[in-house]
Amino acid sequence: MFSVNHQKFMEMDELSLRKVPYFFVIDFLSENVEIYQENEIEKEGLIIDFQHISNTKKPQALNKKVVWKSYPETLESFQIGFDKVQKNIRLGNSYLANYTRKTKIETNLTLEEIFSHSNAKYKVFYKDFFVFFSPETFVKIIDGKILTYPMKGTIDASIENAAEILKNDKKEKAEHYTVVDLLRNDLSMVADDVKVDQFQHIDFIKTQQKDLYAMSSEISGKIKPEFDGKIGSIIQKLLPAGSILGAPKPKTLEIILDAEGYDRGYYTGVCGWFDGQNVDSCVMIRFIEKEGDQLYFKSGGGITHMSTLEDEYQEMKNKIYVPIH
Fold it and tell me: Are 208 and 322 in contact (CB under 8 A)?
């Protein structure tokens, strides 16, 4: 079901057991697994800005007014895949599916400028092919402990009492519970004593288009002895990331591949940095890709039986932004 580049995950294990630092980039379906040791990152045309690793240069001032236009598909076009997902949810084949779209955008910024001037927890510029500015951690591994922070549920921060509304929204809440449950089960495959440490924490995200609140939780566990030091095996077991797929995983994957009708590629894959001891990794969302001369923004959201077409369409459009102030 999941096509897997097994050899590369074994190579990750080998390096991590030897405590050799490396950066890894894995696409959505684990078909492309790339590993870059420290000295290879620069020359491969990668620029990375994470908490614990950064090879960025000081950006030049942005002496121009940002031009930003997006051309979302019509509601009718969005609805085709949405209906397929909803039908499967009604049939009980899935109870949460993350439906994503690809939107044409136009901007006077280069991918590298978008990288340099956007604010996010995780940023990568990849060979002038794509850039992302993700707020979402995939997993952290610190001293034999594994942590994940599922993020599900966003709201426009300008709405009165937005944070409270988000916390109490039935649909967003259901989605959040589902993802927390799914990721707790996922972590249990590689860790013992898995528990939810923090539930429904609200984060503020500032962007040029609009400010958003997002809801996240924290789940942790102790890495099982058989996975100790084997970063590749741990990551392989957990992919694709549950938060951008849905549940149950194998069936939901089939559903979204059919409903989306485009190739996600590296979008919603994961990448991360192993520093010789610990790992920090993220889900590659808030993602802009170059095809020829054309730029595309890939975005979407989780769909449950409570989702309405108009709200999901709006959420998909809300996420087409650059966090540049």
Answer: yes
Instruction: Summarize pLDDT for 25-73 with one digit per residue, the tens.
Output: 999 999 999 999 998 998 888 999 998 889 998 877 888 899 999 999 9
Written as six digits, the tokens of 188 are: 């249990």
Contacts of residue 284, Cβ cutoff 8 Å, sequence gap at least 6 = 124, 132, 134, 266, 267, 268, 269, 270, 271
Q: CB–CB of 44/281 below 8 Å?
A: no
Instruction: Compute the CA torsion angle 146, 151, 152, 154 (nearest 10 deg).
Output: 170
CB 140 within 8 A of CB 146: yes
Which residue reads 């108009």 in tokens? 310
Full-model pTM: 0.91
Q: What crossing angle do the helices spanning 309-318 and 75-90 adopt, rounded to 10°?
A: 120
d(CA 218, CA 207): 24
